[in-house]
Amino acid sequence: MNETQPGQGGRAGDGGPQLTRRGFLRKGAAAVGGAAAVAAAVSPLRDLPGDDLPTFEKFFQRHYKEMTPAEKEAVLRRVEREVKEREGVEVRVGDPPPLTGVEFVYALNISRCIGCRKCVHACVKENNLSRSPEIQYIRVLKMEKGSIDLETSDHHYDPPVVPEHDSYYMPVQCHQCKKPPCVKACPVEATWQEPDGITVIDYDWCIGCRYCEAACPYWARRFNFAAPEVPAGQLNPDMGYLSNRPRAKGVMEKCTYCLHRTRRGRMPACVEVCPTGSRKFGNVLDPDSEVSYILRQKRVFILKEEVGTVPRFFYYFDERGSRYHEPIAPVEPGTADGEAGT
Amino acid sequence: MKRYLTFVWDCVRLSFVGDWRYHLWMTILTVVALLGLYAYCQQLVHGLVTTGMTDQVSWGLYIANFTYLVGLAAAAAMLVIPVYVYRNMHLHDVVVFGELLAVAVITMCLLFVTVDLGRPDRALHLFRRFNFPISMLTWDVIALNGYLLLNLHICGYLLYCAYCGRQPARAFYVPFVFIAIVWAVSIHTVTAFLYVGFGGRPFWNSAIIAPRFLASAFAAGPAFIVLTLQIVRRVTRHRVTDDALFTLRRIMQVAMIINIFLLGCEVFTEFYTDSAHVASARYLYFGLHGRSALVPWIWTAIAFNLLATFLLVLPASRALRTLNTACVLAIVGIWIEKGMGLIVPAFVPTPLGEVVEYFPTWGEIMVCLGIWAFGLLLYTIFVRISVPVLAGELTYEKRYGVQAP
Amino acid sequence: MGKSPAEPTMTFARVDQVRAVAVPLVLFVLAGLLATGPWPFVSPVAPATLVPVWATDPTPVRRPTLKPEIQLAGFTYRCSDCHRLFPSPAETTRSLTQHAHIVLKHGINTRCFNCHHLTNRDVYVDDWGREIPADQPQLVCAKCHGPVYRDWLHGSHGRSDGYWDTMRGPQARRKCIECHDPHQPPFPPMPPAPPPNTLRMGGQTRREDEHRAEDPLRIYRRMLAPDQGDDASISDDYRAMSAEVDP
Q: What whole-number percentage of chain B has pLDDT above 90?
């Protein structure tokens, strides 16, 4: 090549002339141009939101399972402080430990589900899910009678009233599987299964590779593609570190059976709001619980059983649903029928 | 040590020196790479919403390119097999170009994975809690980085010895070469196993994915090398014999035929079974519920692959123009089928039966082009350095006038 | 192949000068272009869907008082206030003069006194004519709806609000008439809450594939009711049955 030729605009080759002023200027101009171009290329980073930059404590924060109780306390207070600064709302972030002798199981009566989607929105409100972009942990599938093939399902039904003729409804959310493929997939152990059966995510540990999202057979995991937006007035201040405290962009999240509620003995939000009582929740290790009764007595099945995930979410059906009757007048929701004694 | 630093410094200086075509090429690549960097910085600010990925299709162009390039990296080192195992000396001089391509391409792979992360600032978490051996991604991290180090060592050692004007000691590189052969197969197998192990994605949950990966990699890799060697032949003083190209052609012939055969196996299994599990294949080849964005792509890819195979099998492909056409067809066809024909259809329909299509955004495309440009930049620099060094034109002795200590 | 790489087409010095200027120039132009922030990101995120307040309201659809009372013109009366004075016929085949808005569509249960006590209107009646207090409506329903009542007792039918762990807090089992209108018990249809609108969802109108057009169930439905398209249903039998009784 040409490296040995003089005046070549390069620095001295083997034994060629020393660096000339012209050569220096040329090289200098190119170098400065290069540096300027690189600086301009990274200039969008000046718009990086302040709380996106990792702070010293966040960078060195340990994995949830490795934190000492004192460290956890500090982290909880930090999260509360951040929410106060960002949203101006006082919140309480707790970290309820799993209860002993408890394995949470969910049962859903598809004879009774009418597909009203109240569970979806109650969950959104309870768990501080992003409104835009919209993230919803629960997806209600309208299924054709006669088929359990999920590919025939319609997720976007919006008729004047539900339930619709010849359809049944199957809400799907995280099944907290006993053999979770998402936990297998995660390369940094940001998601794991707790002793009470709930698969949780450490939002401060997740690297956002979305491998778990590809692994889930029930499409139960969500990713924050953009910074999640929750209107400040709708923030639920009762938060759990592993469940509904505010997440950042770039991390995964999913249904946690409202562990900030259920580990304190309360029902998840979706169970409480269901108007037909289709959703049942409880401790399967307790033989007197509703879910134990259902698993013993009802015709129970699980979704995609052949995939071998052993979910803790059971669908069941009983004697009759609200299908075989004459159409009756719908009620406007939110109004109660306050007639005498009845 | 001082000698090593001198070596590095001389290489750096040499990479800025060249004729006008070299500088034009490098400037174009630099511009594209910087535009890609700009797009990536926008992605860092706003999040992955700048891409076309969604919860329904959560992997897209980045992972598609990553998959393709892992194959390319694996195949680059497969040039080594004819030389070191079968003593086919036609390829002896070009082995180093294959290894250097492997280094550049693996760097591109690592960059593609990094830009796909939602929180790249937490990449160090991989070192603090590593879910090995359960998570296939951890295997992939080890495989790719190990392969990078292997090839860096082999090429670096050979170049450094040439620079110092001494014969490389076989013990320092030949065992690594053989390890690299096995490792090359394993990086692509491990990448295939990333996808294969999911029961919830029946499109991927097939044993044929890994063999198909290898077959298509061994077709696309040599195709890339064939084109690169002809460029090297044209712009440098390095001699590349036609025999080398024809040996690569042989490798491509076999690999493409196996690839087509495996494609046939896959297509038959899917469409003869015709169960609900083949919804993704149906989406890819024919469209599903009225959505058919990928259909023209896959049929183009199949046409390209068939045409490339046909051309390669003909004796007419001994003529370089036909061979080059076949190579380009193979490279593009395999890129489409491995990228859009493998990654995206597994997400359509979602495990719950929803159909949401994926369309890459301009920001995403720009980042991909930027990484490709950066990889080509690296490879050009490597070739630029290695040709004179290996030819003995740039040595310590010539630079400093004394024998290397 | 042509000239060797060491002989450019233009004179050496000329090319060299052009190159020496062009490369930094290109880089500075690029720097200037990128510094202006071209191609700003336009967010595809849709604004939040308006969600009605009732969509997150866990209050049951009915809020019965569970007391034998009625509100008339702003006053509260016990049922027996009127029904002690004015006798009601034992059979109920004529139209109601009071409580006219009650429509009895309880399937084959067309007799008021199956549930209501014959003489004491403050209570319900069981199978042996004994009184069931007004705040225990589930005992009335249990007379006929045995399996559902059994399920309700075990918790698998109907709503329970509050705590799953009754050691930590109360659990309120909703009684039958808090969801079911006793005179028209089927749970009434209601409008659904808004459907999902996720990021870059695309239009979600379905077009059925021919692939499943010859599904046997669809063929069967078309056979049953050719004029209804795919909406045929075996509920026609029930429809016919309930049309025989008086409203």
A: 66
Query: Is beta strand C131-132 parallel, antiparallel or unpaired with respect to C160-162?
Result: unpaired
Residue C234 has pLDDT above 60, yes or no: no
Q: Cβ C71–A277 below 8 Å, yes or no?
A: no
Q: Please state the domain extents for chain C.
A: 53-178
Is B134's CB within 8 Å of A307's CB? no
CA distance to B81, B134, B182, B234, per residue, from B187 (Å): 16, 17, 9, 32
Question: Half-sphere exposure of B228 toward its Cβ, with a 13 Å CA cutoff?
Answer: 25
A204 close to A58: Cβ distance less than 8 angstroms: yes
Output the domain CATH number for residue B288: 1.20.1630.10
A313-317, strands of its sheet edge to edge: A279-283, A104-109, A313-317, A299-301
Alpha-carbon Rg of chain B, whole angstroms? Answer: 22
Nearest CA to A154 among B285, C198, C202, C196? C196
Between A and B, how many residue pairs show a Cβ–Cβ distance under 8 A? 210
Domain residues for the domain of B274 are: 60-359
Domain ranges, residue A116: 104-317
Of A144, A323, A328, the CB nearest to C235: A323
Contacts of C96 (CB under 8 A, 6+ apart): C102
Q: Is residue A216 part of a domain?
A: yes
Rounded Cα distance between C177 and B77, Å, is 75
Report whether B115 contacts A208 (CB < 8 A): no
Confidence band of B396 (pLDDT split at 50, 70, 90) = confident
Which pLDDT value is given to residue A327?
A: 52
Give the count of domains, chain B: 1
Q: Do B56 and A40 touch (CB under 8 A)?
A: no
Partner-chain residue, chosen from C15, C45, C201, that has the shortest CB–CB distance to B20: C15
Q: How do residues C67-109 score in pLDDT, each as one tens digit? A: 888 888 888 988 888 888 877 766 666 666 777 788 888 888 8
Whether C89 has its CB under 8 Å from any CB of chain B: the answer is: no
A and C: number of Cβ contacts within 8 A? 288
Cβ of C94 under 8 Å from any chain B Cβ? Answer: no
Structural domains in chain A (count): 1
Find chain B residues with C-beta within 8 A of C206's C-beta: 289-290
- B327-346 residues touching A, CB cutoff 8 A: 346
Query: Which of C19, C34, C207 has its CB closest to that of B290?
Result: C207
> Above 70 in pLDDT, residue C212?
no
Q: Which residues contact B238 (CB under 8 A, 6 or more apart)?
A: B93, B232, B387, B390, B391
Q: Is the CB of residue A184 less than 8 Å from the CB of residue A159? A: no
Mutation for testing the A interface, residue in C56, C59, C212 having most A CBs under 10 Å? C56
What residues have CB less than 8 Å from B77, skipping those under 6 apart? B98, B99, B102, B147, B151, B180, B181, B183, B184
Residue C163 confidence (pLDDT): 93
Neighbouring-strand partners of residue A282: A105
| Distance of alpha carbon C140 from alpha carbon C121, whole angstroms | 14
Tell me how far apart the alpha carbons of residues B81 and B218 are, in angstroms, rounded to a whole number: 12
The residues with which A199 forms a beta bridge, in sequence order, are A193
Residues from chain A that touch B136, judged by Cβ atoms under 8 A, are: 185
Q: Which CATH number belongs to the domain containing residue A130 in this structure?
A: 3.30.70.20
B118 interface with C at CB cutoff 8 Å:
no
B367 occurs within a structural domain = no
How many CB atoms neighbour CB B67 within 10 A? 25
Cβ neighbour number for residue B176 with a 10 Å cutoff? 17
Q: Picking from A42-46, A246-250, A317-321, B104-108, which range would have the lowest pLDDT averaged per residue? A: A317-321
Residues of chain A by 3-state class (helix, strand, coil), percent to 5: 30, 15, 55
The pTM of this model reads 0.90
Cis peptide before A133 (omega within 30 of 0): yes
